[in-house]
From TrEMBL:
Keywords: Coiled coil, Cytoplasm, Cytoskeleton
Name listed for the protein in its UniProt record: Similar to DRC7: Dynein regulatory complex subunit 7 (Bos taurus)
Species name: Cotesia congregata (Parasitoid wasp)
InterPro entries (UniProt xref): CEPT76/DRC7_peptidase-like_dom, DRC7/lobo, DRC7_C, MORN_DRC7
Subcellular location: Cytoplasm, Cytoskeleton
One Pfam family named in its UniProt record: DRC7_C
GO biological process, one term: flagellated sperm motility
Primary residence: cytoplasm
Domain Dynein regulatory complex subunit 7 C-terminal, chain residue ranges per copy: 508-613
């Protein structure tokens, strides 16, 4: 069990502080005067200060007790143990492979695979200093003091005052090579020096399944300070669990407070789950790709029904209705929307207790937006008729309202009737929306229950170990390629078959027939070589003319823009490269033509069908 903090703990969510700008009105009311005794205020301030000081002293004593308990026992070999680990240094060259990837040096612990930053205080507690470091090219001895562990080490390996190299430095050698002039003899300036010995370890060959398993039997358990970490390889757990972190409140790790879980390859897109043991609340996070576009699910582990308290967050950009969040409570249901064309962003439904018949009176209040320069807004309240019958009968006593403008004309009864009718229709539609929300939650809970009962894991189409169809197809393709290569090796090309077919393919050729077949084959082969050379030459001439035209256009580039000049320059460079390639091909073809002709002649002389030519 390690007393170090757990390096696997998830980072807390960064919440950007909201900028609260206090709006100061020109006509702000002054607060009433406070008639309080200054003596009483001073006594109260002294009492609060004393309580605050007592609380600080109490917290200090608690921290002191914790430090005493966490203090490790005395170790007579502290700082004397030798250990080997990996350091990744940044690439200082501008065109280096790691110039943008690695900006600061960091350590990698081989026993755990964890990386440690050098500016972390925990790193200095683990690594007390460096005696030497090496790679496949050289061995360096640290000439610096490590009074502050590895925090102030200079990693400039080219400085011999900081790092003394065992072998001549490659960097110094490269600087000496750059000082050699082109016309000087290169062999006289190359220094012969020792190289690092080759590794005595054979090349490591790890099977793909063993590489994926990562740990013995595919799992590993580590104990840290008040934390238990369980790691699993992919596909080892049936539910896709790859990491489980249990945080405890005691050092014996008996009382859990939080459980963090990470998942991989889940078909339901679940990738992280957080369980608060004391509150009984669980938070599930999903990736994009679900049919219902669920992003987060906050719920109680004891609640499985639609009416239980829970919160669902969605990827609103994926959903057609713009739904971003649903908050469910036994007494209310709230929906939040984003990016809707009808500007709807909030809908709230409250579930109240059933009332008796004589109290069954319903009101509908319509609130309007504030007009400019108004401190109040207009409202209109309707009393829902108890029985509408076949058609709605409007009575002016069924509504009353307020208008901040005293000079505004009275609303017409017909307009109020249409407004009441609209409100009644929206009431019916609101019930439909509530039922749809409940149906959505019920569907999600049903689907989630099946996903947790029998979780399905996805398999990549490039996974040769688990994708049977892809594995069978790849094996079949490899077998086909192997058979084709064997067939090409076994079957040697017979150049005389077309010429023998012209004369009827006799069983035995006369001397004249054999000579005629041989000459026809050689003449066709020479013609093929000449035609190939002519094709290369004609293509070379076409590209040369194009290159000369581009050169003339660049010479008259006074009226061209920078983009056009760059385009012409790029095309001219490509044409010049193609000309060089064709020139090399033509020279090589001419050099190998005689060799190829002699090879063809020797094959024909040794052909069994032309054996009559060697007979006397």
């Amino acid at each position: 069990m390690s007393g170090n903090p757990c390096p696997y703990m998830p980072e807390p969510a960064k919440i950007s502080p909201e900028s609260e700008t206090a709006s100061v009105s020109k006509y702000q009311l002054k607060p009433p005067a406070q008639f309080q005794s200054k003596l009483l205020l001073e006594i109260e301030a002294a009492r609060l200060k004393k309580l605050e000081q007592e609380e600080q002293d109490k917290q200090f004593e608690q921290r002191k007790l914790i430090m005493e308990r966490e203090r490790l026992p005395a170790d007579e070999f502290w700082g004397q143990r030798v250990h080997a680990w990996v350091v990744i240094l940044p690439d200082n060259q501008a065109g280096g492979a790691r110039h943008q990837e690695v900006l600061e040096p960091f350590f990698i612990e081989p026993s755990s695979g964890q990386h440690y930053s050098l500016d972390n205080h925990q790193t200095n507690l683990l690594y007390h200093g460096i005696e030497s470091l090496w790679n496949d090219r050289n061995y360096w001895v640290n000439m610096q003091t490590c009074e502050k562990a590895c925090e102030e080490i200079d990693w400039n390996l080219a400085d011999n005052s900081l790092w003394l190299s065992l072998l001549p430095s490659e960097t110094i050698k490269e600087l000496e090579m750059e000082m050699i002039k082109p016309d000087e003899d290169f062999s006289g300036h190359v220094d012969k020096h020792l190289d690092m010995p080759t590794s005595y370890v054979e090349q490591i060959d790890i099977q793909s399944l063993d590489y994926e398993r990562r740990f013995p039997n595919g799992r590993k358990t580590m104990m840290f300070k008040k934390t238990k970490v369980e790691l699993f390889a992919p596909y080892v757990q049936m539910d896709g669990l790859i990491e489980k972190i249990t945080v405890h409140e005691d050092y014996e790790c008996e009382k859990a407070t939080h459980v963090y879980e990470k998942y991989s390859k889940r078909g339901d897109k679940l990738f992280q789950s957080t369980f608060f043991v004391g509150k009984g609340i669980k938070i599930d996070l999903y990736k994009r790709g679900r049919s219902d576009a669920v992003k987060e699910h906050h719920y109680s582990i004891d609640g499985d029904s639609v009416t239980d308290e829970r919160t669902l967050e969605f990827y609103d950009v994926v959903r057609s209705d713009g739904l971003s969040k649903i908050q469910v409570h036994p007494h209310y249901l709230t929906q939040h929307y984003l990016g809707r064309k009808d500007l709807l962003y909030y809908r709230n439904v409250e579930f109240s207790l059933k009332k008796t018949t004589n109290q069954n009176t319903y009101h509908r209040e319509v609130s309007y937006h504030y007009r400019e320069d108004d401190v109040t807004r207009a409202t209109r309240t309707f009393i829902k008729p108890s029985d509408r019958g076949d058609r709605l009968v409007f009575n002016p006593e069924m509504t009353y309202g307020y208008n901040p403008d005293p000079l505004a004309p009275l609303e017409k009864s017909l307009d109020l009737f249409y407004l009441l009718e609209t409100q009644l229709k929206e009431e019916e539609q609101s019930l439909v929306y509530v039922h749809e929300a409940e149906r959505l939650i019920n569907t999600f809970l049903t689907l989630r229950k099946s996903e947790q009962g029998i979780p399905k894991l996805t398999v990549s189409q490039f996974d040769r170990n688990r994708n049977d169809e892809a594995k069978a197809a790849m094996f079949a393709h490899e077998e086909t390629l192997r058979e084709q290569s064997e067939r090409q090796i076994e079957e040697e090309i017979d150049y005389l078959q077309p010429y023998l077919a012209r004369i009827g393919n006799p069983d035995k050729l006369t001397k004249n027939q054999a000579f005629q077949v041989q000459q026809e084959c050689l003449n066709d082969f020479k013609e093929t070589l000449v035609n190939r050379a002519n094709r290369i030459w004609r293509k070379f001439q076409v590209i040369r003319l194009n290159f000369e035209e581009l050169q003339s256009q660049l010479a008259q580039a006074d009226d061209l823009t920078k983009e056009e000049i760059d385009s012409l320059t790029e095309r001219a460079t490509e044409a010049n490269f193609e000309m060089h390639t064709l020139d090399v091909r033509l020279k090589r073809h001419v050099e190998l033509s005689s060799t190829r002709y002699q090879s063809m002649l020797s094959k024909l002389n040794s052909h069994p069908r032309l054996s009559s030519l060697s007979e006397q």
